[in-house]
Write a structure and sequence with these properties.
This protein is mainly alpha-helical and 193 residues long. The longest helix is centred in the C-terminal third of the chain and has 80 residues. It is rod-shaped and about 135 Å long. The termini are far apart.
Length: 193
């Protein structure tokens, strides 16, 4: 559903989505992320603390996936991350429910905050890199246009100069040949012997 709603952007036909498409995509993305994150809960119930560690790894993978699929949209990133962050935030509580001590639950909470901070820092870094790439592309396009303009100006200059030089040079170079081949007539008043 989200791929269909975002198809104008993925096909390159649009830069932004109309509000109704954003709403559909947002609902689909949040729902699919919530379902994905929900599968971490049975790991806690079936696997205890070891299952909980696997659940945290799955949620972390989901957060990294959210970075990739969100593109440049902070709105989409928020929709992708919110369910995962809520499941991740439940980790210390679930650990304590499984019998882990307060120190282990606190360590898990610090790890969850660190994972979230890393995810947001990676998103910011990715956004800076994408903007840098777009700026480099704009600069490259500008330089290409300038080079094409310079080549066109040079071609016009060479064509003009070539024509302006060719006409008089042609007359100069062909005049002696024309003088030799033309019959000589004596000046008026003089006769030839």
């Amino acid at each position: 559903m989200d791929a269909l709603a975002c198809s104008p952007i993925s096909s390159g036909k649009a830069e932004t989505l109309p509000p109704w498409r954003k709403l559909i995509a947002g609902i689909a993305i949040a729902a699919s992320t919530a379902v994905y994150g929900f599968f971490a809960l049975p790991l806690w119930q079936l696997g205890g603390l070891a299952g909980g560690i696997c659940a945290v790894l799955i949620l972390t993978g989901g957060m990294m996936n959210a970075l990739v699929v969100s593109g440049r949209s902070t709105f989409m990133l928020g929709l992708n991350l919110t369910p995962l962050v809520l499941y991740l935030a439940a980790t210390p509580l679930l650990m304590m429910a499984e019998g882990a001590g307060r120190a282990a639950a606190t360590a898990a909470a610090v790890i969850c905050v660190t994972i979230l901070a890393f995810t947001l820092a990676a998103y910011a870094s990715n956004a800076r890199l994408a903007e840098s790439e777009r700026q480099a592309q704009r600069d490259s396009d500008r330089r290409r246009r300038e080079a094409e303009s310079a080549v066109a100006g040079k071609s016009a200059f060479v064509a003009t100069v070539s024509h302006d030089l060719r006409t008089p040079l042609s007359a100069i170079l062909t005049a002696p040949m024309n003088w030799r081949s033309a019959p000589r007539t004596p000046p008026p008043g003089r006769t030839r012997p």
